[in-house]
Amino acid sequence: MGTYNLYHLKQKIIKDSIALTRSKNIFVVRSMCLLVGSCYYLGLLAVWHIPSLSIQMSYNLYQASMQATINYLNPPNQTFERLIQDPNLVRKTLQQIDNS
Fold it and tell me: What is the CA radius of gyration of the chain?
């Protein structure tokens, strides 16, 4: 199946090269085949990598928002200092949550 698709891709590149150059000279068509083939290759490469890039960006955004939320809700080194200074802080916080 892969060789069949590759054959059709090669024929399409040759057909497009002949249509672009409007020439029957083999050297002109071959040089245009290199250009058209590289454009097809770059297009396939972009289409192949777009999903993986969007997944990577989504994952990075999720990690950054999670870290920002954790840092906002629990400032480093202040939570434990407040718990040590005021042992009733947990009880007060739970009462505030129940009241709201």
Answer: 31
